Amino acid sequence: YNRYDTAHALGHEAQALDIAFSVMQRNGDNEEMHDRYRQHAPGAASYVQYRAWNESSGDLLGSQSRQVEASLQMAPHLQLLLGWSQVGQSTSDITLSTLLPPTERLNNLGLQWQHRTGSSQVRLFERNEFSTQVGASLDQTWNWSQRLVLTGGLGYRVDTSESVPLRVGGSQDYLQVALNYAVDQRDSVRWQSRWAQFHTQQGDALGAGQVNDLEWGYRLRLDYPDVRVRLYVSDQAYNSSNNGPALLAHLPTALASSLTAAGIDPVRYFIPESSTTWGGCLDLGENVGGQNIQNTYTRAIRPFMELCALDHSRTGNGYSGAFGVAGSVLGADH
After folding, report:
1. Is the pLDDT of residue 36 over 70?
2. Is the pTM above the cut of 0.85?
């Protein structure tokens, strides 16, 4: 283990992974070395991943998504990221249907590099939906200490899911910062703030928003299957711009006519109401060795589950849940 840890600390990733692989060849049940390998190998290897999912927001919006992403190792700490996705969309809402194209395509190109204090990622993308749009994002992670991790992000003309109309025909420019602090092995605190300016895909200003999230987590059990309780609060404040007539002139004729006939402010159609959400979650089997099994390689097939209850200041009480399994089928896959 000392040879592996020393090589990894010095940035000799190829040597470290060779050491781990040779140890696991001699002893396939060496869990300590396997944990090191699965945590560090994805950051030093090329890979291709494919995702497919269907999503429904009642009768308002249905989507069928297909996504391909590739990561190519350009240098020991530098990766080239390539992505493509296509989403089929449908709705039974007459007003929204005038804004909704049958398909959305997103192409993106990016770079990710690792350094001693964290990682950085920059992406450029082209979105073809309501109109063709080019945007960019920059994300940075700083490992301030073993307990404190800071993250920050900037986005320009990035897609947004604040409301269904914004998701279909809008975009956002944003700045966000977050802090993750591990009090000890069991207690953790997370805070995040995001400030955003919203636009239609043609560039018409819609308004601004600020979202503040605070979460506390406590692990009742550390080893897999781990058990964690989370409590969170999210405050979402939005302000609408006062350019309804100008916006109406730039919307599709059918949508403008539908909003006018219904007496709906076109800006308020896109911008949601301010709200506050309180919630609590129970997570079971979510990580191995401090790594989320949904995102990080794990050799064994492992189940996970999340159950949440929430109270929304405008829509009332609600529930959510997630059930699944993660692991390796062929050996090097996830």
Report:
1. no
2. no
Chain centre distance of CA 91: 24
Instruction: List the one residue out of 177, 194, 287, 283 whose CA is nearest residue 234.
Output: 194
Give the integer Cα–Cα distance in Å for 175 and 193: 8
Backbone angles phi, psi at 112, to 5 degrees: -135, 130
> How would residue 133 be classed by pLDDT, with cut points 50, 70 and 90?
confident
Q: Which residue has the tokens 């896959």?
A: 333
- Residue 281, helix vs strand vs coil: strand
Identity of the amino acid at 98: T
Tell me the mean pLDDT in the region 147-166: 91
Using DSSP's 3-state secondary structure scheme, residue 35 falls into helix
Spell out where the chain has E strands. Answer: 47-57, 61-75, 78-90, 103-115, 118-128, 132-143, 148-158, 170-182, 187-200, 205-221, 227-240, 275-284, 287-288, 291-292, 302-312, 316-326
Strands 118-128 and 132-143: antiparallel
**Tens digits of per-residue pLDDT, 45-91?**
778 888 888 887 766 777 888 999 998 888 878 899 999 998 888 87
Core vs surface per residue 289-305: b (16+ CB within 10 A) or e: beeebeebbbbeebebe
Where does residue 122 rank: exposed (0-12), middle (13-18), buried (19+ CB within 10 A)? middle
